[in-house]
Amino acid sequence: MTHLAGTLEIEPRTLPSKGKVGMLTLIAAESAIFVIFVIAYLFYAGKSLSGPTTAILRPPIFFTICLLSSSFTVHLAVGALRRGRWAPFVGWWVLTFTLGALFLIGTGLEWKHLIGEGLTIRANLLGTTYYSLVGLHALHVLVGLVLLGAVTVFALLRKVGQAQAEKVDVLSLYWHFVDAVWVVVFTVVYVVGR
Amino acid sequence: MTTQSETWPTTESARRPWVDELQQWLTTVDHKRIGILYVLVAILFLVVGGIEASLIRIQLIRAGNDFLGPQTFNQLFTLHGTTMIFFVAMPLMFGFANYLVPLMIGARDMAFPRLNAFSLWLTVSGGFLLYYSLVGGYGLYGAGSAPDVGWFAYAPLTSKTFSPGHSTDYWTLALLVSGFGSIATAINIITTVLCLRCPGMTLGKMPLFVWLSVAMAILAILAIGPLTAAQAMLMIDRYLGGHFFDTQAGGSAVLWMHFFWVFGHPEVYVLVIPAFGIASEVIPVFSRKAIFGYPIMVGASLAIAFISISVWAHHMFTVGMTPAGNTFFVLSTMAIAVPTGIKIFNWLATMWGGRIEFRTPMLFCVAFLFQFLLAGLTGVMLSAAPFNWQLSGSYFVVAHFHYVIVGAILFCAFAAFYYWYPKVTGRMLSETLGKLHFWLFVVGFHLTFDTMHVPGLLGMPRRIYTYETGRGWEGWNAVVTVGAVIQGVAIVIFVINLARAALKGPKAGNDPWDAWTLEWSTTSPPPEYNFATLPVVRSRRPLWDLKHPEDPDWKYE
Amino acid sequence: MLDFASQGIGSVWATAPGVPLSPTNIFAPASTPAESIHQLALFILVVTAAIFLVVFTLLTFAVVRFRRRPGDPSGEPPQVYGSQQIELAWTIIPVLIVVVLFLSTSRVIFELQQPPRPPGAVVVTAIGHQFWWEYRYPGLKVVTANELHVPISDPARPTPTFLELWSADTDHSFWVPRLAGKTDLIPNRRNEMWIEPREPGLYLGQCAQYCGTQHAKMLLRVYAHTPEDFERWVKAQALPAKEDPSVARGRRIFETTSCVNCHTVVGTAASGRFGPDLTHLMSRETLASGVVPNNRESLRRWLENPSAIKPGALMPPMGLAADELDAMTDYLSSLH
């Protein structure tokens, strides 16, 4: 059963890449999860019956800059890989990893400070919603770092070249998502929710 | 060919040791085998859920019955609801989509075959976890305890205070795990349809089943996340001292309801939308006419999917929302009736002027039309908030949603079984047993679910393990129970039909129904690679074009 | 003591307008909110029934008329792909129906959720517990449990009852179908509903939101009185507990066992809030929120082991000896 359409011209078309579509759909699903945590945070803003208030929150400006610039660096990395330039790719990629790791360290330091001030996940509604939302994001950063790290290892083993650029680009989409989520979380927690 | 015959399934049975065969099935990444496994899992849990329902019905056959105590009863209705939705209806629909979508778009497999297998096994693990609660609920060395908080697990009944032990956690974990599988399947379906269509198949030329699978997947992507989030919050409350739903700390029980129903309402559309897809394939073929109004059908389906995200609080009309809030959800819920009605009319118009053949698939679809009409209308009654204040939480609601889930979704699923079984197995199901199954099931279904509306109207709430005499509920409940028995018999006949035909059914050939979509252009069962050459299509019914070269569809589309 | 056994049930049947199917029939309204809902329900039923008849007829016609017959020509019937006009028609008509239904519904929503509160209105705070109902009449200094007493209302001098709904533990729902639609009782949330019965009688219902093991037995009994009878009931309920020296032993056992941690008997040392107020226990017709009749035998059985009557009830058996049980039963039976 060959040409069911007989002889005719089919309009040429390019279908989107599987990796991109798959990752974007995953991002949509993950966004739905984050939206609920954001809603819970905003719903409970100011409603804690006791315990620390948002006065003790310190906006992590430096670490935010780190994370958001890592979007830029990962973009440069992918661009370099697409042009087949291994060394700049690895350079920007490792810088991305470092910036992401710095962000996580910053989150840890912030939490240490907040716990010292008496804000724990069980302290009050603020504690529950803050650690859950920021923690969920940090978990996604961690997963991203694991994946970035794996690619770094493969790259150093010379297994990542121009042919893998598409896949690496798909992974960078995830990283951009993580950064975009942070923009939302930062705004909700440190700007709107205060 | 010979080197391949050891690993590719072919119609000639290779004499392989059964252990090998089993291993092939357990490690398969072939969408067809995964689809079959999903369906087998669904049938297994259908029987389990049916037994649970039967026990419930025996207990309720008369007032003050002591066949079951309250603890057991409460576990049974929780397990029944959770099982039927998450481990029967969803796997069934995912199974059909998995099997059919690649074939219908002329593709080799789904976009991510290994992710596909992973989704299947996540679902199976979820089911296992739910039932493991029977032994593990209070820890291995204590008596086990299944969850008893209802399938929607309202807070704060699910807090550690009111649900000590682990029974609730098994509910939560089972659904978290299978939820990840469902999201992965949805990702797979969307990617497959967007990226793997054969040449000539624009989005406007896909079979409606494919469109509706995409709509289902989009809804799953948007709806399952909220459930995952809410369940994570519940676990944080139960184990990390969180206060998301802790009313003693200022938390809100209503917030759980909002989060759950933001998932829960689209979820039922995730279940019914593929049923629409099945009807949209079967009705045209057995009416011998193209579907009436294809573009409108696509538009209406997408409209239903998107509107369904805005109706959720119609499950919460009694929680004391403001009049404005209640009014909004009345409007959105009534609005969804419009595209739904449009679809019914389009199916009607498809049959109109046709030459209808009442083979078993069509019988189930015709019953679906009548039953879905009624279910939709009881839905309109429920959408009117003040009327809802009487009807909600009663057996009227139970009757309504079973009318949809059994009367519409399960009936379409049966139609799908009878329609595509020949393609999957290469053999025809028995038409005699099929008709017997159909008529018995119709009688049992109506006896149970038509009658069930009445106790609701007479004030009988749901989720009660027993009821008082003198409320006027007994006779009706007895009739409901009798209908359940009849349905059980019909299911047994169905399973016998499936098994017998696999061994002794007459050979089906490629295209036993004289149908028009791509899956009928390949062998029954299809080879592992689906199509020997990549199909190229020009219209929505490529096989119609082939069979009617003087009058092809592409002249009219 | 006001005797409802004969008057209550009988009057329910008498007032159910020709529909003796059930004392909880939503189509036998006996109070203003239930009546409003009933009107709306009938309207919606008529509309949906009409839709059902039309579409049912069309479907049946199609299924009969267009089935394949032996005499049919061979080949396929004419293929019709769609029709813009028909699609428009069966879009517009449903939209109009939806508009009509929506407008009539929203009118009733506002009417029922924003009722006027006349000066004679009775205000009751209802608190849901696992598995019983607590009623407090703040203005009248009455606290009781499980059996709600309200006055009937006269259009000339309306005396509806407004219920403030709270919960002490999980979600519950107050549903007495002949009096009103249900409204939930949710912890950490204040809800409101109202009823306005017109005929004296006993109105039945039960909890309608799954709340745990004994959800099924959290029954509701609402007694509607003439204004005079209601006054009398209130006066009797506002008095402290009757003192009867002949049951002193039982009272001592009551006050020295942990009963007092959960129950209140006004005028004694017992002031617990976890369980029902027992000051006028004998004024109630039933025990355990409607589950058993209030007589000596049921009372004694309940005291011996509540879970024998209502498995999962939160009151524990107190482990009393037989003669202590008798004395306690005597004491409680004196609380008229």
CATH hierarchy: architecture of chain B: Up-down Bundle
Structural class of chain B: mainly alpha
Q: Look at the structure and give the mean pLDDT of chain B.
A: 94
Number of domains of chain C: 3
Give Rg of chain C in angstroms: 27 Å
CATH class value of the largest domain in chain C? Mainly Beta
What's the layout of helices and strands?
The complex is a heterotrimer of chains A (194), B (557) and C (336).
Chain A: H1 18-43, H2 61-82, H3 86-116, H4 125-156, H5 165-192
Chain B: H1 18-26, H2 31-59, H3 70-104, H4 113-136, H5 167-195, H6 208-240, H7 253-287, H8 294-307, H9 323-351, H10 360-383, H11 385-391, H12 395-425, H13 431-457, H14 474-504, H15 542-547
Helix pairs in contact in B: 2-3, 2-4, 2-14, 3-4, 3-5, 3-7, 3-12, 4-5, 5-6, 6-7, 6-8, 7-10, 7-12, 8-9, 9-10, 10-12, 10-13, 12-13, 13-14
Chain C: H1 5-15, H2 32-65, H3 84-113, E1 122-129, E2 132-137, E3 142-145, E4 147-151, E5 161-167, E6 172-174, E7 183-185, E8 191-195, E9 201-206, E10 219-225, H4 227-238, H5 248-256, H6 259-262, E11 286-287, E12 292-293, H7 296-304, H8 306-309, H9 322-332
Parallel strand pairs in C: 1-5, 4-10
Antiparallel strand pairs in C: 1-2, 2-3, 5-8, 6-7, 9-10, 11-12
Helix pairs in contact in C: 2-3, 5-9, 7-9
